[in-house]
Amino acid sequence: MTIQAAVDGIGVAIGHTAFVQDDIAKGRLVAPFDVTLPEDAGYYFVTPHEKATMPKVTAFRDWLIATMRP
Description:
3 helices
């Protein structure tokens, strides 16, 4: 949704180049800066400390980690 909002001119988005290469090539998006992060940059699961042990939060975290494992 963020990328689509940027394509629609509603705002800006930061994301992986692979997800927007076609939009950049077709002129729907522009990369205003020549800055990229390494492809192996990580993701972080963030939640407020007081909610980190809630069953629904830990279940989602565990599912997410299992899904993302190679």
